Amino acid sequence: MAALRKLKICAVSPTTKHTASVIFLHGSGDTGSGLRSWVRDVLVPDLVFSHIKVIYPTAPPRPYTPMRGALSNVWFDRRKISRDSPEHLESIDHMCDTLESVIQDQVRAGIPKHRIVIGGFSMGGAMALHLVCRRHPDVGGVFALSSFLNKDSVAFKAVEERHRAGLPLPPLLQCHGDDDELVLHRWGADTSELLTKSGMSSSFHSFSGLNHQLSRPELELVKDWILTRLPPPLPLPLPLPLLTPSFHSFSVG
To answer: What is the pLDDT at residue 135?
Structure first.
């Protein structure tokens, strides 16, 4: 197995104290900084929070079979972009190991796992689902935009086994354009249905006329959902004022 590599990170810091984190994974051929720029161009105001750090890692270049083995920034390899294609588990598991350091960096910074949300666009959404369903089901949530899992994905089995054992699973938000010609809308809908049948709480949102891209209404929905999963911390109660004893003199007679 290849040695684990430290990933390049593009991050947007919170405007006040850092108490939660979002890890947002890009699609195939993109970079963390590329996704961050795309989000900033689409969403007005930006995907910025008072208390949440948004982290955009970059997948290291690797040979990518759908591009005839050319190097590309992808999270894993696959034979083709299809629900019927077997998963390339070796590359998926290797990247799960690599992304472990991104999660642990947040934990070391004092962010508990339930205050971390992981998501992604396209291939990044599929990577997020593998990472959360199979390795980190104790995070605060997962989102997948224009994404799908292969019909026989091991992620479905992992969710089902956890559900049967009575263990909690994080909620899933999926968004998909109904005009997507690269990752078909029904692939995303089928993924949501299978994860729900396996025991995951999943909400699937369709966007009319949207192709394989991000949109402002979609990102507004994602932003609102993130805030429901990672709300600002409650303010500390004000200290009670110190009571100064008072002395009264009484004259008798």
So the answer is: 97
